[in-house]
Amino acid sequence: MTVPEERERWTPAPPHTLPEPRQPADERTAWFTYTAAGDQIVWSPAFAAMVGRVPAEKGKTRQILARHVHRDDHAKALGAITEAWTSQATVHTTVRLMRADGGWFDVDCTLEPMGGPDGAVRGIRGTVRDVSARERDRRESARLTRRGETVQASLVEPDPATGLLIRARFADEVDRALRGAGGALLVMRVQAGDTAEGVRPDRNADLLHSAARLVEEKARPEHLIGRVGPNEIAVLFARTTWRAAREQARDLITALGEQSHCWGGLVRFERDAEAGSHGLLIDAEQAWRQSREAERSLTLVAHPVPVRDRQGSYRSRVADALGTDRFTLYSQPILELQTNRVTRHELLLRVLDETDGPQSPIQVLDTAERLDAIFDIDLWVVERAMRLAAEQPGLCLQVNLSGRSVGDPRLTNEVEKLLERYRVDPAQLTFEITETALIGNLSEARRFADRVRDLGCGLALDDFGSGYASFRYLRLFPIDLVKIDGEYVVDLVDNPQDQVLVRALVQVCQAYGIHTVAEFVQDEATLRMLRELGVDYVQGYLIGRPSPVVPGRLRKS
Length: 557
Description:
Strand content: 15-25%
Domain EAL: 311-557
Organism: Actinoplanes subglobosus
Protein name: EAL domain-containing protein
Domain PAC: 91-143
Oligomer: single chain
InterPro entries: Cyclic-di-GMP_PDE-like, EAL_dom, EAL_sf, Nucleotide_cyclase, PAC, PAS, PAS-assoc_C, PAS-like_dom_sf
């Protein structure tokens, strides 16, 4: 929902130091010639306008011309020139040219040998035509093809240590059971020795593996089993009476107790109960802790902690903040490095204090997410983003969503309704998921991702590189854009390790067909290095600070 405050090392340069956007190419013919005698370069005014140089500039050499060829295309351009020179035939190629301000564009280049009176080649004449739109479409088509090839087809994956369902997948099944008949949820803690301290990792791994096999052996075929914590194994008794669930839970704990310490918490649930998987797991985990403290094997919770008690007070606070305009939106511009234009904005949530000063909402959002009270906040942000997009056609916005809302089945329907109500072009919106947020239901999150992509919206992943999950999400979700964690950017120029990491992250994203955004860009040296590393977009104080959203006034270029 927000980005951390950036660490400033110096006073950011004023906005006028930003590169000027590339203007549309002159319709007149753009050409250059190179004559070997005297190492002489001549170029037309149209070519000079393309690369952002003074038309009548003196002292032009082939080295100066080479600087305007994208470094990744140097070998290609040299090969084409050599072929035209040696074969004395016209050669066609497509390369990227650099402007003086660092932006780049695509051109079709026709190279013709220039002969002397004796028939020998004395030089080269090149005619260039801007084909950026065509090449952008080609790259986008190739990117989408790579996306289709790299997105994982299935979400089902076992825990590598035990072979059981991972917590997220197990929670999905709990939610599914809640929509059916009643049942119970058991969470068991297994532990070697009197304490967890001092246990060798290999011994603990063996303990978990043997405990998982024992539970699979003792549980009935219709019962689902998952690993929901470091030393926690859960069993879902769906469509089971409370009496039967109690008996089966005691049998399992007794069997596990013969090979290790074991405590359990059993929570009963009814069909369509208010408590979701997150709440039930928390209640069951709290129950096994009560068992350990009371030195008993099992604690029974005949009724889950009422959601009303857990969430009521906080929902009231959220509703009060929404109703009294205590929440507000700020925006931060994002610069596209190819065109040197601000092509999108990220919307950031702020909370107004008693003196109406904007404060970071991190604490509010963290508590709301833990208590399942985040959906109303996210919906408030989405609706206002729709209004802004409707007021300014062509304006592209990145909208932050919590992981729990993305996994809420209501969100997909609400987004479709709002798109229809405000008649917004879906391409204006990119929904951004914070990697560190807990996605409540992976299946629903994938459904949301697939649906918004079908509608024409984009999907982004925040804080990329901050953990293993970010790489995993590249295969789980059809991500269009990732935001490289700002911690790797803020000291990029002076930190060789960060340079290696950012380069690797960019290469991974390029292989997957995903665009990249670098956050926390505060100086021109960092901006230049990010260009060299192949980053597509940048944001930070150098580009623009977060500022209050004023409808109809967001800067688009």
